[in-house]
Amino acid sequence: MGKSCDIKKMFAPFAPETHKAMDRYTSFRVGGPADILVLPQTMEQVIALAKTAQKAGVPVTILGGGTNVLISDKGVRGLVMVLTRLRQGIEQTAPHMNTGGDSSDQICLTALAGERLGNICRHAADSGLAGLAWAAGIPGTIGGAVMMNAGAFGSDMSQIVMEIEVLDLTTLETTVLPGNRLPFSYRKLALENSIVLKVRLGLAKADPGTVRDEFYRNLKTKQSTQPVSQASAGCYFKNPPGFKPAGFLIEQAGIKNARCNGAMVSDLHANFIVNHGNACASDILNLAVQIRKSVYEKFGITLKEEVKTIGD
Ligand SMILES: Cc1cc2nc3c(=O)[nH]c(=O)nc-3n(C[C@H](O)[C@H](O)[C@H](O)COP(=O)(O)OP(=O)(O)OC[C@H]3O[C@@H](n4cnc5c(N)ncnc54)[C@H](O)[C@@H]3O)c2cc1C
């Protein structure tokens, strides 16, 4: 009791919310309480929070838009930083010499990690900048997109990240890392125990009409093939390398429309689990187990989760 009072006092300057249900911070609309929840607005606040957490000995969990996570019903212990307020617009500049920008056709877009990917995407489409139209309709923040190496239509973040500024949660030091040295792989950036604070993307000047057309074409395709208006976390499973996409395998395993209470396999896209309003995290997890089992029995393939499970 005494210790938890001390911890509360240590975080008091950051106006935290305690035991706050996390369902409204995730696109799945599920998730139990966070011990301590803070929504920092500046990089300085993020760094100060990380220092306080280290001093208090509490674990730190980072969320962007919460569009690729499943937070457990028991919630998250320690400090949760939701970074959706860590933004101050999109800066458009010529590339730095030291970030490999050697073409006069190249333009950099820089944003803090909490900027919505959708805003950056629209900025690029409106400014005739090519390289990001594939991301039309992907929700969440630019920081989350970098950490997940978000992708679609055969492209992903690894192809356009010029550099990122990160805070190492162990040393509490910030570093700028060049994009071409980052350990990106399919839907993953292997950066342990770090917070992405700022992202710089390299895009190319192009014909504005062509860029806009591609953006809206991709947006339309996404809206007609995915249940974008329902609560989900996007594709639940990764596509297994060398096989058909996970959605096809799930459909062929005969479990499209399967459900567990309020959680259901989408009838529009079988790799989406949707929350019909009253699902809890355990319903989604149980349905995922059922899907994995059915696909394994039919094809001998073990699907791996793309969605990150967080919490107790
Ligand atoms: C309708 C829908 C459609 C989608 N379509 C696609 C798609 O086409 N392609 C695709 O790749 N994804 C898709 N997604 C999944 C998701 O939107 C992306 O992965 C997105 O980039 C995640 O961003 P986020 O800010 O929501 O991250 P979150 O879900 O908040 O976090 C994801 C992970 O990144 C970590 N993280 C987040 N921000 C930071 C940070 N600043 N520093 C360190 N770690 C961080 C979190 O701890 C977590 O492990 C879709 C989701 C939905 C709901």
Structure explained in plain terms:
It contains seven helices and 19 strands. The radius of gyration is 20 Å and the shape is globular. With 312 residues, it is α+β, with helices and mostly antiparallel strands. It folds into three domains: 2-82, Uridine Diphospho-n-acetylenolpyruvylglucosamine Reductase, domain 2; 91-225, Uridine Diphospho-n-acetylenolpyruvylglucosamine Reductase, domain 3, CATH 3.30.465; 246-310, UDP-N-acetylenolpyruvoylglucosamine reductase, C-terminal domain (Uridine Diphospho-n-acetylenolpyruvylglucosamine Reductase, domain 1, Alpha-Beta Complex). Strands 6, 7, 8, 11, 12 and 15 form a six-stranded antiparallel β-sheet that branches. A four-stranded mixed β-sheet has the order 1-2-5-3, covered by helices on one side. A three-stranded antiparallel β-sheet has the order 16-17-18. Bound molecules: flavin-adenine dinucleotide. Residues 27, 62-69, 83, 113, 138-141, 143-145, 147-148, 150-152, 195-196, 226, 228, 232-234, 308 line the site of flavin-adenine dinucleotide (FAD). Flavin-adenine dinucleotide (FAD) binds at residues 27, 62-69, 83, 113, 138-141, 143-145, 147-148, 150-152, 195-196, 226, 228, 232-234, 308.
